[in-house]
Design brief:
The chain folds into five domains: 19-92, no CATH class; 100-344 and 436-498, no CATH class; 368-431, Dna Ligase, domain 1 (2-Layer Sandwich); 526-677, no CATH class; 679-840, no CATH class. Helix 18 runs antiparallel to helix 19 (629-642) and helix 26 runs antiparallel to helix 27. It has 840 residues and is of the alpha+beta class. Strands 4, 5, 16, 17, 18, 19 and 20 form a seven-stranded antiparallel sheet that branches. Strands 7-6-11-12 form a four-stranded parallel sheet, with helices on one face. Strands 8-9-10 form a three-stranded antiparallel sheet.
């Protein structure tokens, strides 16, 4: 240690230390009595850190920051976020720029301990819900099990389909002062963080691809392939339908669930998407009920079946426990496995390991005493000053998870702890936790030690347990903050398991030829509903933007200033009236710039372009696993463009430019959906939503700007709103004509902006979607579409009148209602066709 308190560093002779590195590590102080991942007690850097920092230094601080800013931009654009319990806001994912570096040999020891512990947990939970020998032999107190809220009596005696209770096991780990890994908590209920670990790696792989290659960082695809194969092998059918059950977009970890579903090819479903019929579990799809073979649940088990567990639950599936009893569905992890997370089990694990495995635990827990045992309670009372008092069955939701007493607690907390022990001692455990080990984190251009917790995952395979060669790591930005739960002041870090030799790249070639198919799976009805409305909201936003842009473009150069009344001509009045009718503005006689800003960017106006974009984003948030990342990025950029905070009203020219760029983003979204989305049922519902809304908007425009008394100015606006000025000018060399404008905007089947074109596209989509009638008679929604298509195919522009124009708008809205009634959940008509469909 130097005189100033900073540690002196000795680097390996064959690894140069560039000047930037010295500046980064200067003043790095290892905490007394705490294991640090970067330096040892003698001031030597550990493992691969010199190699990493030497390469980091070669990149240079400016380039490092530029690369990571690019990664942060990706996080923002891709919508990688999380929610804090009780907070409905999305928070950008807080990923730190430095990974945690762990040597491969060190990791191998940790992985061996995780594999042993996962196998032990599987045997314990099988005994708890089976023969109960551990309790009868006195190795486990019955109250510690039966008193846990995670012990589910209806599950007792159910043999898990596929033979396993646990498909995924996770453990929160840290190091003790001696450097040995310790298990701080077992995660068996529905372990979260796997998707965030995957996202962390994807972001840093974009930022530092050369470092990952040079340091021989272990790859992740092999683990995820094993996870998928393990679930598949547990199913009866060779080509099973695997679903990931989520509580929905307001789940704190919904983003990672969607990432996992997309990466693994699983069907992301909510409870309403599932139904029990004939003793089996099925997904409600646009093609009827389709069997679900496996369910990877990400909701707490007590919410899984409202018929036998929590009756108020709206997240689960009525009757699913009965399906389990019949062996009709594989569920990972089995309901009731959360009982293993109880801290009350911790004191008994060493003896249980000796009994069941014939060996000692490789990974120890912090010294723990369950207060339901009289001797342990006496010990905890006598040593409260150095104890952390925690709930015995730590809930996975809500603030109750926090300890009520720590070694440095105030007198009030001590009194509360004593009262809790007097009232219900069996609800608590006392632990000698000690300080968390530290890792280097980046802070204001230098490295500083920060406490961290790693969540390590293992998946069950036919060959045993396999550990993911990375972890979900969380670091505290300040001392004394528990990094176990993601919240303000906590960051995440990627974990790099490094080797001295190049790592093996898992083979991509599958030696088993799968059944060839040309559909992207069956589309859940809920997903179809959200895709349909995503298309409608985007088209509504475009309609508002085109109205505003047309109004601003017409007035360009004619107004002296942005003040005063510039209501303008009758055509301008009609534009303003339509914006008011659509709920885009409150006062149609505002100055033009103020009117345009309100219609484009006002969150308070339910019909503003921004409000429609926000609605589109909410719909898209339930479809993360189906939308290309580029589409989410374009949607984010569109929101950023419209959601600006400026106390000054921008000029008309500035607003015109903003509207023009917004239309560009919408065009990009349209192109991405057409070119990057698989043209299966999901894309068809998205496109139908756009087509219906575009047809409604164009009919509405025609009623106002192509009516019987329309003048040249009105017709010019009509062509602008339909983006058909160039096509009209190329076809007609004379000025605007009412019949010609009507024909191009409404009836021309070759104009992609005409109503007739939208209707023909809708008919084509409906022809491709599954028909559930065996008699060949068109269903009501298809008859309505064919009837409307016939009307446009035979109409004559010279004969159209205002009543017919209004009728087009109403018929398109009626068609949308029929489509919703047939395909989407929550509609009586949507349930009837399922009885006519074979189950597959």
């Amino acid at each position: 240690m130097t005189s100033g308190g900073a540690l002196a560093y000795d680097w390996p002779a064959d690894v140069p230390s560039p000047d930037p590195v010295r500046g980064w590590i200067d003043g790095y102080e290892r905490r007394p009595g705490v294991f640090d991942e970067f330096i040892d007690a003698n001031g030597f850097t550990r493992g691969a850190w010199p190699r990493f920092l030497q390469r980091f230094g070669q990149i240079g601080e400016r380039e490092v920051m530029a690369r990571f800013l690019s990664g942060e931009r990706h996080i923002h654009d891709a919508g990688i976020s999380y929610r804090v319990y009780g907070d409905q806001r999305e928070h950008a994912w807080p990923l730190g720029p430095l990974p945690l570096i762990i040597d491969g040999r060190d990791w191998a020891e940790l992985a061996a301990g995780i594999i042993q512990r996962a196998g032990l947990m599987e045997r314990i939970v099988a005994d708890i819900y089976g023969p109960g020998r551990l309790i009868s032999e006195g190795l486990l107190p019955a109250p510690a099990v039966a008193g846990s809220p995670e012990f589910l009596r209806p599950v007792h005696g159910i043999a898990p389909p596929g033979g396993r209770h646990l498909q995924l096991y996770a453990a929160d780990v840290g190091r003790g002062p001696d450097g040995r890994w310790r298990v701080l908590a077992d995660r068996t209920q529905a372990p979260s963080g796997l998707g965030f670990a995957l996202e962390n790696r994807m972001v840093l792989a974009r930022a530092y691809p050369d470092l990952i290659s040079d340091l021989h960082v272990e790859r992740l695809p092999g683990f995820f392939q094993s996870l998928r194969e393990g679930i598949t092998a547990a199913c009866e059918r060779s080509d099973p339908r695997i679903c990931l059950l989520t509580s929905g977009p307001y789940s704190s970890t919904y983003v990672e669930q969607a990432a996992l579903a997309r990466y693994l090819g699983f069907l992301l479903v909510e409870g309403d998407d599932l139904v029990v019929q004939d003793g089996l579990l099925h997904v409600r799809t646009v093609a009827g009920l389709k069997r679900a073979d496996a369910l990877w649940r990400r909701i707490d088990a007590d919410y899984l079946d409202p018929m036998e567990l929590r009756s108020e639950s709206r997240l689960g599936v009525p009757g699913i426990l009965d399906v389990l009893r019949r062996g009709g569905v594989v569920i990972g992890n089995m309901p009731g496995s959360g009982v293993l997370e109880s801290g009350a089990l911790s004191p008994y694990l060493p003896r249980i390991a000796e009994r069941l495995l014939g060996e000692s635990l490789r990974l120890s827990d912090p010294p723990t005493w369950w207060c339901g045992d009289p001797e342990s309670l006496a010990h905890v009372r006598a040593n409260l000053d150095r104890m952390t008092l925690r709930p015995a069955a730590t809930p996975v939701r809500g603030p109750e998870r926090d300890a009520i007493l720590g070694p440095h607690a105030l007198d009030a907390a001590r009194e509360r702890a004593i009262a809790a022990l007097d009232d219900r001692p069996f609800d608590w455990v006392g632990q000698e936790t000690g300080p968390l080990s530290t890792m280097p984190a980046w802070f204001e251009g230098r490295l500083v030690p920060r406490p961290f917790v790693m969540r390590v995952f293992a998946t069950a395979t036919s060959d045993g347990w396999r550990v993911m060669p990375t972890a979900f790591c969380r670091t505290a930005e300040q001392e004394g903050v528990d990094p176990t739960v993601m919240r303000a002041g906590i960051r995440s870090a990627d974990v790099w398991v490094v080797s001295d030799q190049p790592v093996e790249t898992p083979p991509l070639l599958n030696t088993i030829t799968p059944k060839i198919r040309r559909i992207a799976g069956h589309l859940p009805s809920r997903a179809a509903d959200n895709l349909f409305w995503l298309g409608r909201y985007l088209e509504r936003a475009e309609g508002v933007i085109r109205l505003v842009q047309t109004h601003l473009g017409r007035l360009a150069g004619t107004l002296a200033s942005d003040t005063g009344s510039d209501v303008g001509t009758p055509t301008s009045l009609r534009i303003r009236a339509l914006l008011e009718e659509w709920g885009s503005v409150d006062e149609p006689d505002l100055p033009t710039a103020a009117l345009a800003r309100e219609a484009l960017c006002d969150r308070e106006q339910h019909g503003s372009a921004l409000s429609h974009v926000l609605s589109a984003r909410r719909s898209a948030s339930t479809l993360r696993e189906r939308l290309p990342v580029e589409a989410w990025r374009a949607l984010t950029e569109l929101q950023d463009l419209l959601d600006f905070d400026d106390s000054r009203v921008p000029s008309e020219a500035q607003l015109f430019g903003r509207a023009e760029r917004a239309l560009g983003h919408l065009s990009a979204l349209s192109g991405l959906s057409h070119e990057n989305m698989n043209h299966s049922a999901g894309w068809r519902f998205f496109d139908m939503g756009r087509r219906i809304e575009r047809g409604v908007n164009t009919s509405s425009f025609a009623l106002r700007f192509a009516g019987d008394q329309a003048g040249a100015e009105d017709l010019g606006v009509m062509l602008a709103l339909c983006d058909s000025q160039i096509a009209y000018g190329a076809r007609y060399l004379t000025g605007v004509s009412l019949p010609a404008v009507r024909d191009m905007a409404l009836l021309d089947p070759f104009n992609p902006r005409s109503v007739a074109f939208q209707v023909e596209e809708i008919v084509r989509h409906l022809d491709t979607l599954p028909a559930l009638r065996a008699d060949g008679v068109p269903e009501p929604h298809r008859r309505a579409a064919l009837r409307l298509a016939g009307t446009f195919a035979t109409a004559d522009a010279t004969d159209l009148n205002a009543g017919q124009l209004a009728g087009f708008e109403d018929e398109l809205e009626d068609l949308a209602t029929l489509i919703a009634g047939r395909y989407f959940p929550g509609n009586a008509d949507a349930l009837r066709p399922e009885k006519l469909t074979g189950l597959a």
